[in-house]
């Protein structure tokens, strides 16, 4: 398929260390300018060393690129895929130079973030602008693909993931099964300037509706920042303790709806901390997988690309709200952080 309005796709992500020697330099990139004590950074580093000093996020992005490349080829869409990260190799600036050398002039951008917020949307757009200015490559146009929290294929993907998790639990106790949808907490000040909470609530509701459950809640994880700064609550571990104290759950299903892949924060905060807590409290727990390379999810990305290529006029969305905008308004997700000390990176 030729004469497309775009000549490349950039997959833009957070990045993560590939080996133990990468951990400290990676964290220095993440925390640069944030006035974080070195002792605190070393404490965060232990999370990565706990899993061999390697974050799963890079391998998961490689797998997603491989699956998406095959999906595009199957539908005769000739669009090379480039990959760049905010905080680790391949760094966005290096990838942008590679794209320039290859003659790319107009690129679509798929960010590995589902929901609207400063850190999950606007900051990535700022990363692109900063890299372009640094390299003098303003001649390349980068257009971000819309958010997809209410795309029916994303909802179907996550419903499948939840069903698989439920199948791991025994039949006994199913009548008091509680589903906890989890997402990365953000500062209240950031949340007040975007649709993050509203979109998360809608995604969770649509997934719960798709699998026919009504015992569910939206909770948060991976909080960082100083204790006196309010962030979105409740925390997932606090929610689990509350369920145990009130004896209102005989089973728990954790659904990391806020994350595209099973990266470090998912496996550390949920598979380690939350799972250990649930075991201590005597409540069986299963954790649903993230969207990852689920075929329906990969097909959804291809459909979003087709929208921007003009190959379809349909913009799919379900629920209370319509499809998200293609072009972000000037003040969309605006946030002026004071650069507080953060306790951990945000993959």
Automatic annotation (TrEMBL):
<dbReference type="InterPro" id="IPR001015">
    <property type="entry name" value="Ferrochelatase"/>
</dbReference>
<feature type="binding site">
    <location>
        <position position="265"/>
    </location>
    <ligand>
        <name>Fe(2+)</name>
    </ligand>
</feature>
<comment type="pathway">
    <text>Porphyrin-containing compound metabolism; protoheme biosynthesis; protoheme from protoporphyrin-IX: step 1/1.</text>
</comment>
<dbReference type="GO" id="GO:0004325">
    <property type="term" value="F:ferrochelatase activity"/>
</dbReference>
<dbReference type="GO" id="GO:0005737">
    <property type="term" value="C:cytoplasm"/>
</dbReference>
<dbReference type="InterPro" id="IPR033659">
    <property type="entry name" value="Ferrochelatase_N"/>
</dbReference>
<keyword id="KW-0350">Heme biosynthesis</keyword>
<keyword id="KW-0408">Iron</keyword>
<comment type="similarity">
    <text>Belongs to the ferrochelatase family.</text>
</comment>
<protein>
    <recommendedName>
        <fullName>Ferrochelatase</fullName>
        <ecNumber>4.98.1.1</ecNumber>
    </recommendedName>
</protein>
<keyword id="KW-0456">Lyase</keyword>
<dbReference type="GO" id="GO:0006783">
    <property type="term" value="P:heme biosynthetic process"/>
</dbReference>
<keyword id="KW-0963">Cytoplasm</keyword>
<comment type="function">
    <text>Catalyzes the ferrous insertion into protoporphyrin IX.</text>
</comment>
<keyword id="KW-0627">Porphyrin biosynthesis</keyword>
<dbReference type="InterPro" id="IPR033644">
    <property type="entry name" value="Ferrochelatase_C"/>
</dbReference>
<feature type="binding site">
    <location>
        <position position="184"/>
    </location>
    <ligand>
        <name>Fe(2+)</name>
    </ligand>
</feature>
<dbReference type="Pfam" id="PF00762">
    <property type="entry name" value="Ferrochelatase"/>
</dbReference>
<dbReference type="GO" id="GO:0046872">
    <property type="term" value="F:metal ion binding"/>
</dbReference>
<keyword id="KW-0479">Metal-binding</keyword>
């Amino acid at each position: 398929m030729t004469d497309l309005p775009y000549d490349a796709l950039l997959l833009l992500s957070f990045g993560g260390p590939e080996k133990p020697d990468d951990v400290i330099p990676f964290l220095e990139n993440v925390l640069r300018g944030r006035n974080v004590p070195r002792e605190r950074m070393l404490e965060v580093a232990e999370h990565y060393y706990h899993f061999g000093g390697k974050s799963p996020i890079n391998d998961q992005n490689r797998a997603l690129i491989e699956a998406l490349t095959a999906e595009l080829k199957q539908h005769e869409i000739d669009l090379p895929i480039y990959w760049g990260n905010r905080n680790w190799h391949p760094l966005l600036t290096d990838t942008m130079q590679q794209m320039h050398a290859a003659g790319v002039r107009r690129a679509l951008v798929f960010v590995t973030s589902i929901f609207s917020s400063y850190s999950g949307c606007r900051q990535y757009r700022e990363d692109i602008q900063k890299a372009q200015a640094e390299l003098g490559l303003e001649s390349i146009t980068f257009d971000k693909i819309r958010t997809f929290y209410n795309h029916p294929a994303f909802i179907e993907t996550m419903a499948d993931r939840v069903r698989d998790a439920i199948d791991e639990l025994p039949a006994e106790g199913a009548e008091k099964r509680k589903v906890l949808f989890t997402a990365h907490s953000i500062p209240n000040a950031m949340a007040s300037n975007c649709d993050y909470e509203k979109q998360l609530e809608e995604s969770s509701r649509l997934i719960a509706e798709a699998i026919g459950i009504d015992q569910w809640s939206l909770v948060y994880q991976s909080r960082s920042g100083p204790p006196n700064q309010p962030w979105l609550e409740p925390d997932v571990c606090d929610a689990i303790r509350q369920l145990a104290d009130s004896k209102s759950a005989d089973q728990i299903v954790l659904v990391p709806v806020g994350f595209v892949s099973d990266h470090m924060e998912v496996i550390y905060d949920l598979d380690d901390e939350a799972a250990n807590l649930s075991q201590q409290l005597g409540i069986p727990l299963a954790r649903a997988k993230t969207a990852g390379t689920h075929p329906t999810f990969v097909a959804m990305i291809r459909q979003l690309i087709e929208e921007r290529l003009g190959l379809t006029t349909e913009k799919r969305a379900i629920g209370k709200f319509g499809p998200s905008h293609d072009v972000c308004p000037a003040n969309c997700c605006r946030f002026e952080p004071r650069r507080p000390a953060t306790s951990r990176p945000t993959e």
